[in-house]
Design a protein that fits this description.
- It is built from 10 helices and 4 strands; from the N terminus they run ααααααββαββααα.
């Protein structure tokens, strides 16, 4: 009999214990239902020997949380930086526009006939042949742009000026038309200085095209009309009287400023100055 009940013994025992406990619980409930005595429950309630506050004392209010000023967030800083950048960009743009406008005005002023004629005469004043040629239209038939002197090229003209101590001095140039400026200039040289003659002033019309100066004209013959009778003719007469052989070469038909003529002008200029000094001393 044990052998047959041994299999599953534990599970069978467990179930028989549960059945007994249920039967006991049922008997206990039925006995309570038939009695009038009060039932006591042994419920353990925790007690507080030291309560955190006295029950008969008012509870102190909780102190208010201090307010902290909000710190500027990333969005505020970004907006401020963006505003500064926008202002700087505006300032830079205005400055660039002002510089551009000033540059345009400068270029416009530099391209007027008066400005271009001034550049030409400044180069003449400095005896700077390359700078003079840079202001002259390269297609002009006479590259010399002969203003005054026995020359066929600009280089020869200034070689002659050097031999007689001749210099131009610019006063100013004024616009006359889109293709012309009138320039007031004066000139003097070793001869006029020896004669005590003040520099002779006159107005020259400078004609221009898109490529440069194309013509320089003595307005009303004002310069030549004074230079020859007051200075040039006196030098020529002195050479013809005192050095007739030189005069024949210097003032003959072939008056191009070649080396021989330039040398004769230089020598006789020195002689003329010395003669004027002697005459003034006597």
């Amino acid at each position: 009999m044990f052998g047959e009940d041994l299999t599953g013994c534990e599970s069978g025992w467990e179930w028989s214990m549960v059945d007994r406990q249920e039967d006991a619980l049922g008997d206990w409930i039925r006995s309570i239902a038939t009695t009038s005595e009060p039932i006591e429950f042994n419920v353990v309630v925790p007690s507080f020997d030291d309560p955190p506050f006295a029950l008969d004392q008012p509870i102190a209010p909780k102190p208010p949380t201090p307010k902290v000023a909000p710190r500027p967030g990333p969005s505020t800083s970004w907006l401020a930086a963006a505003a500064v950048v926008a202002i700087l960009v505006g300032v830079v743009a205005v400055g660039a526009l002002a510089r551009s406008s000033a540059r345009e005005a400068e270029l416009a002023a530099a391209s007027t006939p008066a400005a271009r004629a001034t550049a030409f005469w400044r180069a003449v004043e400095a005896a700077d042949v390359p700078a003079i040629l840079a202001e002259v239209d390269p297609d002009v038939d006479s590259p010399a742009m002969t203003i005054f002197g026995p020359a066929s090229t600009m280089g020869q003209q200034f070689d002659w000026y050097k031999s007689i101590g001749f210099e131009w001095q610019l006063d100013r140039c004024l616009d006359v038309s889109p293709t012309q400026a009138n320039c007031t200039v004066s000139a003097s040289n070793t001869w006029s200085d020896a004669l005590g003659q003040e520099p002779i002033s006159a107005t020259f019309a400078v004609q221009l095209n898109d490529d440069g100066v194309v013509n320089v004209d003595d307005v009303s013959n004002a310069f030549f009309g004074r230079w020859f009778p007051e200075v040039g003719d006196q030098f020529k007469a002195w050479v013809e009287i005192n050095h007739p052989d030189d005069a024949e070469v210097m003032f003959g038909r072939n008056t191009a400023a070649h080396p021989e003529i330039l040398k004769l002008y230089e020598v006789n200029t020195t002689r003329f100055v010395e003669a004027q000094a002697v005459d003034s001393d006597g």
